Amino acid sequence: MKMLQPAGWPRPKGYSNGVSASGRMIFVAGQIGWDETESFPAKDFAGQFGQALKNIVAVLAEDGAGPEHIVRLTWFVTDKQAYLKDARRVGEIYREILGRNWPAMSVVEVSALMEDEALVEIEATAVVP
């Protein structure tokens, strides 16, 4: 995997501008903050974010992949301010679960998600060499 950083651009914090990779691709559907019983252990943004990441890691493990193979994440959040308020904790949780892997990322605020209790949904793309 190669991080793409155009000359003269400022280094992004917590993500990459682009990633180049070749290998077997894994596409993970949007994961929300519920557990394997479809209940939400956390009601707050940071807690649901962490559970969504754990769900992504579990799906990747089904095909022998891990967080280090993630090349793209797309986040859908229902409350931008809740995300910003918890940004420090979100960063800590991210590093605890995904390590220091910085894929290409987008974060989009949406008016709602399909599950009423969900505060965040995250899609992932991984490439296993």
From TrEMBL:
<protein>
    <submittedName>
        <fullName>Enamine deaminase RidA, house cleaning of reactive enamine intermediates, YjgF/YER057c/UK114 family</fullName>
    </submittedName>
</protein>
<dbReference type="InterPro" id="IPR006175">
    <property type="entry name" value="YjgF/YER057c/UK114"/>
</dbReference>
<dbReference type="InterPro" id="IPR035959">
    <property type="entry name" value="RutC-like_sf"/>
</dbReference>
<dbReference type="Pfam" id="PF01042">
    <property type="entry name" value="Ribonuc_L-PSP"/>
</dbReference>
